[in-house]
Structure formats: structure tokens, C-alpha cells
Design brief:
The chain has 548 residues and is of the alpha/beta class. The chain contains 18 helices and 18 strands. It has helices at 4-14, 29-32, 47-61, 71-88, 135-147, 184-196, 206-210, 214-224, 254-260, 299-304, 315-325, 362-372, 387-393, 413-427, 448-454, 470-478, 494-500, 511-514; strands spanning 19-22, 40-43, 65-69, 92-98, 126-127, 154-159, 200-204, 228-230, 246-249, 266-270, 291-296, 309-312, 378-382, 402-403, 433-438, 459-464, 504-509, 536-544. A 6-stranded parallel beta sheet has the order 2-1-3-4-6-5. Strands 9-8-7-10-11-12 form a 6-stranded parallel beta sheet. Strands 14-13-15-16-18-17 form a 6-stranded mixed beta sheet, with helices on one face. The two termini are 47 Å apart. Bound molecules: thiamine diphosphate (TPP) and magnesium ion. Thiamine diphosphate is lined by residues 80, 383-386, 408-411, 438-441, 444, 466, 468-472. Residues 438-440, 466, 468-470 line the site of magnesium ion (MG).
């Protein structure tokens, strides 16, 4: 007779879920016992890194990723990045061990006391199977739930004594659809409003990038002849930023956002919430005379929009449908539009981005990086006060070459970039990954660089070292809250930290002299260290996980 473990592993194989991102404890060892040789276990050293790596990996692979955590202990540590995975709409199958059923009633050491409550509300479904033999079917339901729109993480709590129990197999393998078509009549009404508009405008969101829809997004914008904005704080780039119709990223705040849409009579926002606001800057949600129409496959987003008419549906199916509806439409020559050409940070910029002591500014670092970065590099960003400068210097012109977090929860970027680099290798795309991260943000999941080093991933991590939480100093000015403690970060030696985890690292001083020494981060020199990038200084530290 097969065991619950046998049948479960067979099911996981069916779905290609053969990589497990985890951090193990006694309650998970019975699941991992005699680990099959066709599975790969990626140990991350803290659960924020487990989830962040799995999230990056799942997004870049365009398929769910499997996670195994240590009961309530590991699940608790995982919650910050689970918030991000939920808002990123990343399908993750998160599992955690549970104490033996024999003892659960008396809550022994390391019991997950309310296992389905702990990860909520940041999972679409949380469950502890009532019977051991329900585990394979619970995985099947978890996979279906994670994949169906809107995609997202799910959670299974798995008691440690279930795995040796007998189980009839094989598990039932099912499939579900991952896209919902929009209602045709309502889509036609939206299409009519746009084609009859005297000055339509498009706002594209990350769902377009998640569904690999750049081509369809460009086709519709060109057919309509309308300018395109990226939705505020887009976690993926929805449109080529060098396209003549691209205006830039909309600001995060109510008043300034509304200001940018002035002069238009119909706006379509597609694949994003209405809107991702932050911080509170009062104003009207929309300029006078503008009708907003909204398409999203997330009923929570369509329900909570403060203004506009919404339609539930997949972003790319909707774009294709709308383009067909415009078959006879003659696009007006697009009016000259404002060209911002970069995304907006969710805050006022810090003082010119130049530190007081004349050190290199982040903008100077980005400009140099932009000249020497390898073609097709993937950018992962978690650099709060430098967002605008970064996007100004580095427009995103290829699909799937930009990732950031939808949540504002720091600690995602570093492990996610490791997961993305691993997926680049696993898919054979082999594009190098460059992570731009603040010196504060670097600390939250710092241990993930150990994985990058162990996996010899071709990455460059640029840590912008201003020795402070600069963005919070800007907020203190905006919110008129002088005297806030805890905004300085003196005495952190990032180069030593990186070396301690097995990476090569250097301090950047003199960009000009070192540019010529840079060699691209491609496969052939991925294992070179030291002189393969510009080095030695004071505004940034560079971490390269590929030291041998
Ligand atoms: C998990 C988490 N803790 C705290 C914060 C609050 N916070 C927002 S920005 C920030 C500072 C980031 O500092 P750094 O990465 O150095 O970027 P800088 O502002 O200096 O560019 C902090 C602590 C957060 N967003 N998430
Ligand atoms: Mg900083």
C-alpha cells in the first residue's frame, strides 16, 4: 500500500512542483524523509527569504512554487513576504508542518495553535486536512486555488504523523483555467466609450506583464492612438518604456494623480487597482469631466475602487477584445503628451539625492550603471528614496526585465532577485540580474545572498549606502514630524556582511576610472570576481555572489 507521502510526491511531480523552498524543523522531517533524487530542496536561512525567493522564482517561471515552513514558528517569520506575495498575485503553495495529531489537543511545544488563522488574510485558502489521506486532494485543491484568478498564495498545515499513513492512489489530477473572459456586452460598451472619446488615455497595470501581454497592450494603444501611463507603483512594467505613446508612471497620491489625467474625457485602467495610493495628499480622485472605466480579474479590486465603472476580466483577453472592437476605428494622431518617462516614487524626493558630504549621488551611480550594464539584464528594485532616479536612468524596454514589490513591505527584493536569477537559469534565458537595494532594505532578508553565492548565480547587487532611512526623513518633513528617532544606520559594514555569506564585495568610490574595467555579467564570466565590475567607494557597495 502506498503512503500519503508516496501519493503526494507523485502529485507534486505531475505539476512540476519538484523544487521546494524551505526552512526545516522536526515537524517537517517526516515529509522530507528519503528526499527523492528528482526533487530539489533550496534551504533559505530565514523564512522571509524562503517566501521571497519562491515568489521571485514563481513569477519568473510563470508557474506556482512550493514552500515548506516550520509550523507556526516559520509561518510567523514568513508573514511579511506573504503579504507581498498576496499583493503581487503570485501563486505559492505554502505548507507548514504541524505537531503530531496524537498530542494536538494539549498543545505541545511548537504546535501551530490556529494554523489556518496565522497566515490570514494573506492567503486565498488555509487548511489543515481532517484526515491524513486527504492530503493529496488538499494539495490538488491548493494548486487549483492558487492558480485561479486572482492568483495568490495558499496555505496547508500538515501534521507530522500523517506521512506514513496508508493512502489509496494515485491522486486525482485536475486542471483549472487561469483566465476569466470579460462580459462581452460591457466590454463593447467600454470600447465604444473609448473610441468615441475626444481624448482617451490608458493606464496599464502589472497584470498585463504577468500575463505576458506587452504585444497586446501595444496593439491596443496604437489602434486607439492614446497615451499610456503605468499604474502607480506597478510591480511589473506593463508597457515598453521607450514606446512613443508611453508617458511614465502615474504618481501615488490622490491630488497629483488626478492632475496628470486632466484634459482627457475617458480613461481606461486595466490590470491594476484604482488606484494604489500613498501617502495621503487630498484632492479629487479624478479631474472634472473624466469618465474612468476599469478592468481587473480581482473582484476585491473592482469592488473597492472609489470611483469609476468596473468590469471583471483578464487584462490580456480584454485588450484583445477591445482591439477587435476597434477594427474600423481611425486612431487620431496622438496629441503631444507629457513625457515623464520614469516612474514616480511614493514620496517627495530627498534633497537632490546628493549627500551632504559630496559623496556620489544615487543618480550618478545609476547613470554609470546604465552605461555598463549588460544587454537584457533584469532589474529588481527595493530602493525607496531612489525610485524615480533609477527609472529615469534605466527605462524598461524588454518584457519581464523589471520586478518590484506591490506591498511596501521591505525584505522582498533581495530574496526575490535570487529566485528570479535561479528561474533565469532554469528557463535557459540566462539573463543576468541586477538588484538595486537601499542599505536599510538590504538588512531584512540579508541571508538570501548566501543562496545566491551557493547557487553561483550571475547577479550584481548594488547597495545604495546613505547610512540612513532617507525616505523616512522625507516623510518626516511631509508629515511635519520633527525629532523622530531611529532613522540613521551608522556602522554597518556591508562588504564584510556580503563576504561572510560567501559573496565577493567591494566599495564603490570612483565610477569614472572604473567603467572601462567592467565586464558584462554573462555566463562566461559569471564566476569571475573582483575586477569584473566597477569598485571601491562611498555611495554604494557592490555584492557579487559569484566569488569562487
Ligand atoms: C518590513 C518593513 N519595515 C519597515 C518599513 C518602513 N520603512 C519604509 S522605507 C524604510 C527605509 C528604507 O531604507 P533604505 O533601504 O536604506 O532606503 P532609503 O530610504 O535610504 O533610500 C523603512 C524602514 C517597511 N516599509 N517595511
Ligand atoms: Mg538608506
Amino acid at each position: 500500500m502506498k503512503t500519503v507521502r508516496d501519493v503526494t510526491y507523485e502529485l507534486l511531480r505531475e505539476f512540476g512542483l519538484t523544487t521546494i523552498f524551505g526552512n526545516v524543523g522536526s515537524t517537517e522531517e517526516p515529509f522530507l524523509k528519503n528526499f527523492p533524487s528528482d526533487f530539489r530542496y533550496i534551504l533559505a536561512l530565514q523564512e522571509a527569504s524562503v517566501i521571497g525567493m519562491a515568489d521571485g522564482y514563481a513569477q519568473a517561471m510563470r508557474r506556482p512554487a512550493l514552500v515548506n515552513l516550520h509550523t507556526g514558528a516559520g509561518s510567523g517569520n514568513a508573514v511579511g513576504n506573504l503579504i507581498t506575495a498576496f499583493q503581487n498575485k503570485t501563486p505559492l503553495i505554502v505548507t507548514a508542518g504541524q505537531q503530531t495529531r496524537e498530542m494536538l489537543l494539549m498543545e505541545p511545544w511548537l504546535t501551530n495553535v490556529e494554523p489556518t488563522m496565522l497566515p490570514r488574510p494573506w492567503v486565498k485558502w488555509a487548511y489543515e486536512p481532517v484526515r491524513a489521506e486527504d492530503i493529496p486532494a488538499a494539495f490538488m485543491r491548493a494548486i487549483a486555488t492558487a492558480l485561479q484568478p486572482p492568483a495568490g498564495p495558499v496555505f496547508l498545515s500538515l501534521p507530522l504523523d500523517d506521512w506514513e499513513k496508508p493512502c489509496g492512489g494515485p491522486a486525482v489530477v485536475r486542471s483549472v483555467s487561469t483566465r476569466v473572459a470579460p462580459d462581452r456586452e460591457r466590454l463593447a460598451e467600454f470600447g465604444k466609450a473609448l473610441s468615441h472619446a475626444s481624448s482617451p488615455v490608458l493606464i496599464y497595470g502589472a497584470a498585463i506583464a504577468r500575463a505576458n501581454g506587452w504585444k497586446e497592450a501595444v496593439a491596443f494603444a496604437e489602434a486607439l492612438g492614446a497615451p499610456v501611463w503605468a499604474a502607480p507603483g506597478s510591480e511589473r512594467a506593463p508597457f515598453p518604456e521607450d514606446h512613443p505613446l508611453y508617458c511614465g508612471g502615474l504618481p501615488f497620491a490622490i491630488g497629483p494623480l488626478s492632475e496628470k489625467l486632466k484634459g482627457h474625457d475617458v480613461a481606461l485602467i486595466i490590470g491594476a487597482p484604482v488606484f494604489r495610493y500613498y501617502p495621503y495628499v487630498p484632492g479629487s480622485y479624478l479631474p472634472a469631466g473624466l469618465r474612468l472605466v476599469h478592468i481587473s480579474d480581482d473582484p476585491a479590486e473592482t469592488a473597492r475602487a472609489p470611483v469609476g465603472d468596473s468590469l471583471l476580466g483578464d487584462a490580456v483577453l480584454s485588450l484583445v477584445g477591445l482591439t477587435t472592437l476597434l477594427a474600423d476605428h481611425k486612431p487620431k494622431p496622438a496629441r503631444p503628451h507629457e513625457k515623464v518617462a520614469h516612474r514616480m516614487a511614493p514620496h517627495p524626493p530627498s534633497a537632490e539625492n546628493l549627500s551632504n558630504d559630496g559623496r556620489l549621488s544615487a543618480a550618478q551611480v545609476f547613470a554609470a550603471l546604465n552605461e555598463i550594464r549588460p544587454a537584457h539584464a533584469v532589474l529588481v528594485e527595493e530602493s525607496p528614496s531612489n525610485l524615480s532616479d533609477l527609472h529615469k536612468a534605466w527605462p524598461i524596454t524588454e518584457p519581464d526585465t523589471f520586478y518590484t514589490f506591490a506591498s511596501g513591505v521591505l525584505g522582498w527584493g533581495l530574496p526575490a532577485s535570487v529566485g528570479i536569477a535561479l528561474a533565469e537559469r532554469d528557463t535557459g534565458r540566462n539573463r543576468p540580474v541586477i538588484t538595486i537595494i537601499g542599505d536599510g532594505s538590504f538588512q531584512y532578508s540579508v541571508q538570501s545572498i548566501w543562496n545566491a553565492a551557493r547557487l553561483h548565480l550571475p547577479m550584481l547587487i548594488v547597495v545604495l549606502r546613505n547610512e540612513e532611512y532617507a525616505i523616512l526623513k522625507s516623510f518626516a518633513v511631509l508629515e511635519q514630524t520633527p525629532g523622530v528617532p531611529g532613522l540613521d544606520l551608522p556602522g554597518i559594514d556591508i562588504v564584510s556582511l556580503a563576504r561572510g555569506y560567501g559573496c565577493d564585495a567591494a566599495r564603490l568610490n570612483d565610477i569614472g576610472d572604473q567603467k572601462g574595467r567592467h565586464r558584462s555579467l554573462d555566463k562566461t564570466n559569471a564566476n569571475r570576481a573582483g575586477d569584473s565590475y566597477f569598485r571601491s567607494s562611498s555611495a554604494a557597495d557592490l555584492v557579487k555572489p559569484t566569488a569562487e
